[in-house]
């Protein structure tokens, strides 16, 4: 499996504050990868390092086998939609497409026009008068029509209402699935990611807590409910979270082999899985690490 | 990239060139008349009647004359604030650096095209303004009072190639400020403050030293060129003020020295009689006083840059500003890389 993005010991400091430290991550190519994590985990910093908008303080990062934004050729292979979905407010929608055409060697008018039509954007409208959702659509159109090998989307959904959000994701899938583009998308909303992603990376405090195909992850995690007992004795499984009442113990485990039938076993949803890893990490962190 | 630069720049470019074009048109319309008036003046008094030229030609046009000087002086400030500061600063402010620097164009190429095109527009605007204003003002420059010759700082700054140097400096200064501060308004404020400081400090502290000043010493025996007394606050007379330098020179120093060649700290009290009299009757008294000063060895010493140094100084200063502009541009190319 080739990596679309590979970071080792990656760190970024702003002034005296580390936004990302000691981050090591491998993201496979040809996937739609969801990047999740609590606020301040370093998601945006990681993505900005990946597209070359930031320079790492420590460590290194490789995207599509090259240094991010090192050359025009490298830039042409990566499409990026920033969290604020910036556009030039004085330029019309059509002028944004002309910008894309003139600044990108692989620009595809057909893709651009088709996306504009399906998003219902008027080419003559000034971008400054678009709604948040329309701006996000325009930003995505620019990023997709340059026909990148990797599309990086940093919380493109945060400003959108649920209906627009669904249309946006649908448009995203239509434009990427056929072209075989790798996608990395960060989000808070796990149900959105579940709809489009086939691979998940959970980032907590700069560290990758969990990474893998969503199907495998769901298949290997189970919720166990049974009479209260010491979970350390559970063989062949890694306990992620445990919850105890006086009589009963509830565990979320990553099982490597069938578990003791004494437990009541149930499947875990993606949202519960993600939250379990975030919570586990918050509980395991030492006070010093928490302060950081 | 050229298309994008033009598309982003065209509004502020049309605003500046619109004003300059209107001014140039007005000058082209009124200029021929001014030149006719000037020719008539020359035939009337054959360059001898200074008072007539000032009263009947220069003075009636003095408003337009200083207005144009102001226009040329303000041009670099406008270029720096409205063309330079937003060039990179606005991209950061609106977040569009995340858009434009993610297209398949390296940041340095983006900057090269931006600075290149806006730089050319800057040079064109400065050249157009100086040529139009200098042509129109030429008859007035020729009849202006000695204190307003083209070597004096306010006129010097509004004539010749130095305006192009100032404008290029303003543009790169604004661009660098925007790149550092990442916001348009603070970058405009810093650009304004630095430009005003530089445009005041350079004529005061740098330009006088571009060459060694000429020095002239002479005993004053007639009252023809005595302009007044140099009085200290407590009333002591520090010396005479004499219009001694050659015509068109930029006067740097004008002091009275004693018989040993040292600058006078205070002239004797009787020197008060050397002041220009209120009535013609007092001229004899002044004449006597001057002769007594000369007899006691007092002389007048002036330092100045002669009029012939105008183009030399213009060239020096333009080169200095061009070098600083290139350094600022180089800084932008270095600092714009991802950090």
TrEMBL record, chain A:
Domain ABC transporter stretches: 5-230
The protein's name: ABC transporter ATP-binding protein
PANTHER family from the UniProt entry: ABC TRANSPORTER, ATP-BINDING PROTEIN
Transmembrane segments: none
Pfam families: ABC_tran (PF00005)
Family listed: Belongs to the ABC transporter superfamily.
Originating organism: Rhizocola hellebori
Keyword Lyase: no
From TrEMBL, chain B:
Keyword terms, alphabetized: Membrane, Transmembrane, Transmembrane helix
Spans through the membrane: 64-89, 110-138, 158-181, 188-206, 318-336
Name of the protein this chain belongs to: Transporter
């Amino acid at each position: 499996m080739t990596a679309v993005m590979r970071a080792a010991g990656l760190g970024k400091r702003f002034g005296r504050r580390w936004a990302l430290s000691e981050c090591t991550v491998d993201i496979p190519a040809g996937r739609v990868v969801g990047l999740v994590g609590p606020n301040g985990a370093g998601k945006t910093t990681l993505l900005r390092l990946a597209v070359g908008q930031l320079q790492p303080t420590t460590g290194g990062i490789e995207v599509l086998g090259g240094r991010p934004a090192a050359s025009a050729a490298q830039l042409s292979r990566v499409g990026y939609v920033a969290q604020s979905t910036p556009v030039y407010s004085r330029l019309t929608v059509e002028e944004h497409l002309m910008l894309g055409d003139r600044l990108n060697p692989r620009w595809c008018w057909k893709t651009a026009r088709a996306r504009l039509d399906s998003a219902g954007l008027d080419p003559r409208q000034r971008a400054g008068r678009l709604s948040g959702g329309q701006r996000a659509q325009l930003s995505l159109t620019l990023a997709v029509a340059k026909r990148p090998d990797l599309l990086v989307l940093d919380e493109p959904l945060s400003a959108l209402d649920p209906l627009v959000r669904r249309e946006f994701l649908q448009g995203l899938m239509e434009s990427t699935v056929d072209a075989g583009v790798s996608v990395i998308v960060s989000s808070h909303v796990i149900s959105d990611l579940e709809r489009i992603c086939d691979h998940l990376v959970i980032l907590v405090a700069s560290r990758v807590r969990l990474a893998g195909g969503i199907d495998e992850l769901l298949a290997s995690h189970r919720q166990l409910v049974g009479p209260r007992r010491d979970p350390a004795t559970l063989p062949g499984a890694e306990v992620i979270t445990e919850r105890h009442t006086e009589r009963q113990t509830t565990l979320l485990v990553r099982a490597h082999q069938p578990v003791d039938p004494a437990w009541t076993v149930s499947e875990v949803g993606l949202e519960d899985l993600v939250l379990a890893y975030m919570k586990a990490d918050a509980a395991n962190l030492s006070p010093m690490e928490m302060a950081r | 990239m050229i298309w994008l630069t033009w598309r982003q720049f065209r509004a502020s470019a049309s605003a500046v060139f619109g004003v300059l074009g209107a001014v140039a048109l007005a000058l082209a319309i009124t200029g021929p008349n001014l030149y006719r008036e000037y020719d008539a003046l020359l035939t009337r008094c054959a360059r001898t009647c200074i008072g007539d030229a000032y009263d009947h030609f220069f003075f009636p046009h003095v408003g337009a004359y200083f207005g144009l000087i102001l226009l040329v002086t303000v041009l670099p400030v406008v270029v720096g604030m409205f063309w330079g500061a937003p060039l990179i600063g606005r991209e950061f402010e609106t977040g569009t650096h995340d858009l434009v620097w993610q297209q398949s164009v390296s940041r340095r190429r983006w900057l090269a095209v931006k600075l290149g095109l806006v730089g050319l527009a800057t040079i064109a605007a400065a050249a157009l303004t100086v040529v139009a204003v200098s042509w129109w003002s030429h008859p007035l420059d020729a009849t202006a009072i000695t204190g307003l010759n083209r070597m004096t700082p306010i006129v010097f700054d509004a004539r010749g190639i130095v305006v192009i140097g100032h404008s290029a400096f303003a543009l790169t200064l604004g661009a660098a400020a925007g790149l550092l501060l990442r916001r348009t308004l603070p970058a405009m404020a810093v650009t304004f403050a630095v430009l005003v400081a530089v445009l005041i400090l350079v004529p005061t502290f740098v330009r006088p030293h571009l060459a060694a000043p000429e020095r002239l010493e002479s005993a004053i025996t007639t009252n023809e060129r005595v302009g007044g007394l140099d009085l200290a606050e407590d009333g002591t007379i520090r010396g005479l003020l004499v219009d001694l330098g050659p015509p068109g020179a930029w006067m740097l120093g004008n002091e009275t020295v004693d018989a040993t060649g040292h600058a006078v700290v205070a002239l004797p009290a009787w020197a008060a009689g050397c002041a220009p009299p209120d009535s013609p009757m007092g001229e004899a008294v002044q004449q006597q006083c001057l002769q007594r000063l000369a007899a006691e060895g007092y002389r007048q010493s002036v330092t100045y840059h002669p009029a012939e140094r105008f183009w030399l100084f213009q060239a020096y200063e333009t080169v200095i500003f061009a070098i600083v502009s290139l350094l600022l541009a180089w800084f932008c190319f270095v600092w714009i890389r991802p950090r």
